[in-house]
Amino acid sequence: MDNLNLLLDGFATVVSPGNLLYALIGVLVGTAVGVLPGIGPAMTVALLLPLTYGLSPTGAFIMFAGIYYGGMYGGSTTSILLNTPGESSSVVTAIEGNKMARSGRAAQALATAAIGSFVAGLIGTVLLVVLAPFVVTFALSLGAPAYFALMVLSFVAVTAVLGTSRVRGFASLGIGLAIGLIGLDSVTGQQRLTFGIPLLADGVDVVVLVVGIFAVGEALWVAAHLRRRAAEVVPVGRPWMGRDDWGRSWRPWLRGTALGFPFGALPAGGAEIPTFLSYVTEKRLARRPEEFGHGAIEGVAGPEAANNASAAGSLVPMLSLGLPVNATAAVMLAAFTQYGIQPGPLLFEREPQLVWALIASLFVGNLLLLVLNLPLAPLWAMLLRIPRPSLYAGILFFASMGAYAVNAQSLDLVILLVLGLLGFAMRRYGLPVLPLVIGVILGPRAERQMRLTFQLSDGAVGGLWSEPVAVGVYVLVAGILAWPLARWAMRRRRVAPTAEPVGAGRS
Amino acid sequence: MSRLARRLEGRSELGVALLLLVLGAVVLIDAARIGTGFTQRGPVGPKAVPVVVGGLLVLCAVLLAREVLAGRRGEAEGGEDVDRGHRADWRTVLLLVAAFAADIALIEPAGWVISGTVLFWGSTYALGSRHHVRDLAVAVALSLVTFYTFAIGLGINLPAGILQGIL
Predict the structure, then answer these.
(1) Quick one: which of A57, A221, A281, B25 has the fewest CB in 10 Å?
(2) Strands of A29-102, DSSP E
(3) Is A484 on the interface with B (CB under 8 A)?
């Protein structure tokens, strides 16, 4: 019950007028920027970082909570109203959502997305409250070897599970780890990869990195392939749902939440897999499966809930272990380090007020989103008509402002441009950007834990697996790495004897 | 499309492999330069991780080159405003980079209001907008509003430059 008291204290902090205003601004601006086409949740948080620079950590975190949920929600509006495929986490919502919108049911699609997001966000945040303290207790019992193993798992999971090409994933991870090396060695203070430039001794600032890779890289990439004619926007009135829509939506919301949360909490979970699974599940369970492909409301309700629940789920490892599992969490982590705050188990001990205020503001932000977004939907739809030159010019403008404001160094802008060009090249050649970002953020910390491990074991390699948790994690890592090999072997064995039908594909 | 063009298209990804190779080499050379002596504390020094990372990059370079030569190319990313149907518009990208470079050159001597205006207006021009006057007005307004809210209102580092005293 101790945690409940802390949570109530958190609510007391958030409900003060000043902090409530921060939450409101966060939700509004987060949704508005998230709605803009071409801007995903990660870029939303990255671009809005400067807004919080002048605030106290508590105020900043409260605003972040609003921006985080707002940005997530904004993306689904875009994918329903805009007649094009969008970013990966809302692709599935777009399948049925856009069909609904074009057949005149945009209001219902937006309503089921908004209410489903609220339900999933609420349940997800409750689960976060329940689970995080357990994970923290568990995490506090871990030593350096187990931490290092968990970080290796994060690297391997984001690299090998997501994306289509492992080589490209590992290449991206390698680039990220190399960028993470820039600066002074944390143990001996020797310079690495600084090329004699004094300003590089502090390393590449994580904010500059995420803004460069997500905002500048994306803007340049879109600029090179900008649609000649902007995509068509479906007009919409105020979202509402009839009785029948409620009846068809509530089960998918709950099932979507159940799928989304655990996937969000796993390393490399992300929203892609659970939203897709939710879509398939709803299609199979629907009373009228023939409606799928022509705008079935279940196909919006389920994936949207899964998307938001996974956003809440990803906060569990981020806050309690300090491990970001998706791009948005990585940007949030970058924002925290900006305040000299290191997410991880110790955060709950050292800064309980801050953590619980953040969690309380997730509840508040979630409620504000529901209240605001139903009436404001027509306004958001107008944002989709913004002329594309102004939109992408604005992204570069705010990216440059945010990156300069970090250290007031024009060198940071040079780094920003270089990273932007790198992000452009990576998008062009199908290198995933997430492993790079995770590599930069976790690389230096993994190195510290690894060296600590060897100090403890006095140089013996066995020190790496001197904890049972570490052993378990390495088995998992080996499993992930060996999976394609195993599948290949199985397929060979099955095909070889007879031509019997192979099972219904991989799950 | 002619066969030559298709082969060139496929080959450009080898540039990525080359980049990885160069990056790996830089990391390895830099690691070799790090002296390990009395400063080293613990069994693993500051060299170990750079060597591993450099090795990983070189390995990826080789494997990627093999993939590309075998005809397995990376898939370009999609998006709401992305039309992968037409070829990359290099003129736009170069103009955007130029606008950004102007921003970098101007931000400290001339100040954020001027460099931001140049960046925004230059970018809209690069992206094909032909409403020059309207874009300029938006650029000036945006720069002024951000300067006042962020630099003066929130106390964030944005230089006033030559307009110091006027703003």
Answers:
(1) B25
(2) none
(3) no
